[in-house]
Amino acid sequence: MDVIDPRIEEYVERLTTPHDPLLAELSAETAAELGHTPMLTGPVAGRFLELLVWFGRPQRVLEIGTFSGHSALAMAAALPEGGRIDACEIDPERAAFAQRYFDRSPHGSKITLHIGPAGETIERLEGEFDLVFIDADKEGYVGYYEAVLPRLAERGLIVADNALAGGRVVDDSPPIAEFNEHVAADPRTVQVILSVRDGMTLIRRA
């Protein structure tokens, strides 16, 4: 089930500022070597994340689920001076792939890649987060949300990807549906689900 008419998706991508050549190369190599192309952030969602960072000017970004590094590099490009990203990836092969591109990018030095379960990484990290991007195993979303919410800065933002599960949230009960209901029922936060790509939820403190 397509969330948005593919013709609209194509139109939106065509009229969105293209990502830089390195990210285009990353996307092509990801498809060829790692597969799982639906997991790629892509040019539209990547540009959206970059604009959120550009507007919000976060100093501390946490990414839960890095995959091949597209989203981390998109956000890193807009970080203000001194801004940092802690990127979590559980799969060593994907982490090595991402690090190769971080090493090639002028923005890669702003990213610290942590390999292992994200929950353990979050426990080790200190301080508050200005922006948290969640794009990992959907069964873990509620746990990630509960782990980072108490450490979200006063004007911090949580962005959760794949909120629409390819449209299955309407007629089925995919794991992300539990997360969506959990957040919607939480009086501590205010949220909106946007139909960007496969759905992105923006969450702030109430």
Write a concise synopsis of the structure shown.
The chain is of the alpha/beta class. It has helices at 6-14, 21-34, 42-56, 70-76, 92-104, 118-124, 141-148, 168-171, 175-184; strands at residues 60-64, 84-89, 111-115, 129-134, 152-161, 189-194, 200-205. The longest helix is centred in the first third of the chain and has 15 residues, at 42-56.
Which terms would index this structure?
206 residues, alpha/beta, Rossmann fold, 7-stranded mixed β-sheet, globular
Envelope shape? globular
Taking all residues together, what is the mean pLDDT? 94
Fold-level CATH name: Rossmann fold
What is the CATH homologous superfamily assignment?
A: Vaccinia Virus protein VP39
Oligomer: single chain
Radius of gyration in whole Å, from Cα? 16 Å
Largest sheet: 7 strands, mixed
Ranges with pLDDT <50 over ≥5 residues? none
* Number of extended strands: 7
**Beginning-to-end CA distance, first to last residue:** 33 Å
Number of structurally distinct domains: 1
> Largest beta sheet: what is the strand line-up?
3-2-1-4-5-7-6
Helix content: 40-55%
List SSEs in N-to-C order. Answer: HHHEHEHEHEHEHHEE
Strand content: 15-25%
The CATH class label is Alpha Beta
How many alpha or pi helices?
Answer: 9
Tell me the CATH architecture.
3-Layer(aba) Sandwich
Structural class: alpha/beta
